[in-house]
């Protein structure tokens, strides 16, 4: 593993206990210029995990607590009349940063959620007909609770598709829980965490991911998986081209973190659920049978021939 990636992981693990694979996925998403949706019950550490990554990397950070009364202008900005000059002046919104933490994103109205669509896909916002570019890099880390439905607005499929990965945080096991309790008796390490990697170093890591070789066989394997998902009777809407591109990038990122300059089918397996799981829409009868996406993807994967390299 690259020394800089190891430094980021070690820095985050000073704060977060027992989430090694999730931390790895978050770093991959960032290096692949993708956005992350963190899902889980209240109190499992979604916001703390997001802040740990954000504080480990240099860059400007904004946090927005999404509520029903928040407005699109809070996110993308607005034009205000300057009475002295009698001209409209643009006031930047929260999206003008390197990291935007959208806390409890599903509490905001669909109108506010849609204001993020252009920013997440094209790294720009349009206000009063004028296009304004967002800082580079730009990443959205959004959180949502799984059990609170009252007063929330489910994210539409178009917005879910713009999240590079969706990661679900489960409850810790007993050993991890004991470490969390021990940690809580001392000073909160999140308050003292400092950046360990600059934006220039991050840029070189991104370039390294771009150079990871993906053979024609692995690319065909990704396409075959996407076709198998789309053709499955339990799936109403399959993986879009954007989803397969994300799967390819994530596999390259996973390979780099494993210390390889080439991607393998196993890399595709590792990132399939976090990249694809939230992008598919299950058919009605699948919902009635309480079929889980992870189990469905695993069964579909078993039907696709894995390329063999000699």
List keywords for this structure.
two-stranded antiparallel sheet; alpha/beta; 5-stranded parallel beta sheet; single chain
* Average pLDDT metric: 91
Distance between the termini: 25 Å
Q: Tally the beta strands.
A: 11
Helical amount: 40-55%
Pfam family, one: AAA_lid_2
Domain ChlI/MoxR AAA lid: 228-296
GO molecular function, one term: ATP binding
InterPro entries: ATPase_AAA-3, CbbQ/NirQ/NorQ/GpvN, ChlI/MoxR_AAA_lid, P-loop_NTPase
Any overview of this molecule?
The structure is a single chain. The chain has 310 residues and is of the alpha/beta class. It has helices at residues 3-13, 20-31, 46-56, 72-76, 110-122, 157-160, 174-184, 199-210, 216-231, 241-257, 265-276, 284-288, 293-301, and strands at 35-40, 61-65, 78-82, 87-91, 99-103, 124-127, 130-133, 139-145, 163-169, 235-237, 281-282. The strands form four sheets. A five-stranded parallel sheet has the order 2-5-8-1-9. Strand 3 and strand 4 form a beta hairpin. The mean pLDDT is 91.
Please outline what is shown here:
This protein has 310 residues and is an alpha/beta fold.
What's the helix and strand layout?
Elements: H1 3-13, H2 20-31, E1 35-40, H3 46-56, E2 61-65, H4 72-76, E3 78-82, E4 87-91, E5 99-103, H5 110-122, E6 124-127, E7 130-133, E8 139-145, H6 157-160, E9 163-169, H7 174-184, H8 199-210, H9 216-231, E10 235-237, H10 241-257, H11 265-276, E11 281-282, H12 284-288, H13 293-301
């Amino acid at each position: 593993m690259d020394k800089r990636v190891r430094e980021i992981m070690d820095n985050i693990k000073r704060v977060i206990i027992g989430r090694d694979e999730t931390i790895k996925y978050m770093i991959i998403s960032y290096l692949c210029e993708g956005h992350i949706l963190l899902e889980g019950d209240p109190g499992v550490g979604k916001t703390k995990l997001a802040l740990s990554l954000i504080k480990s990397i240099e860059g400007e950070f904004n946090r927005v607590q999404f509520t029903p009364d928040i407005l699109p202008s809070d996110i993308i900005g607005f034009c205000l009349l300057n009475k002295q000059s009698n001209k409209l002046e643009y006031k930047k919104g929260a999206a003008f940063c390197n990291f935007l933490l959208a806390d409890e994103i599903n509490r905001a109205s669909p109108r506010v959620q849609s204001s993020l669509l252009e920013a997440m896909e094209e790294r720009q916002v349009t206000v009063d007909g004028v296009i304004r570019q967002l800082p580079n890099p730009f990443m959205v880390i959004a959180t949502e609770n799984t059990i609170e439905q009252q007063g929330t607005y489910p994210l539409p499929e178009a917005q879910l598709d713009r999240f590079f990965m969706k990661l679900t945080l489960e409850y810790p096991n007993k050993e991890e829980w004991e470490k969390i309790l021990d940690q809580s008796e001392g000073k909160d390490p999140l308050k003292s965490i400092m950046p360990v990697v600059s934006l220039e170093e991050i840029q070189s890591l991104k370039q390294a991911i771009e150079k990871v070789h993906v053979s024609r066989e692995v690319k065909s394997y990704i396409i075959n998986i996407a076709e198998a998902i789309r053709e499955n009777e339990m799936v109403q809407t399959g993986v879009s081209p954007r989803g397969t591109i994300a799967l390819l990038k994530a596999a390259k990122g996973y390979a780099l973190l494993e210390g390889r300059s080439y991607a393998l089918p196993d890399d595709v397996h590792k990132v399939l659920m976090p990249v694809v799981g939230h992008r598919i829409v299950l058919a009605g009868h699948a919902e009635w049978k309480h079929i889980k996406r992870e189990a469905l993807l695993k069964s579909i994967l078993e039907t696709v021939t894995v390329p063999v390299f000699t």
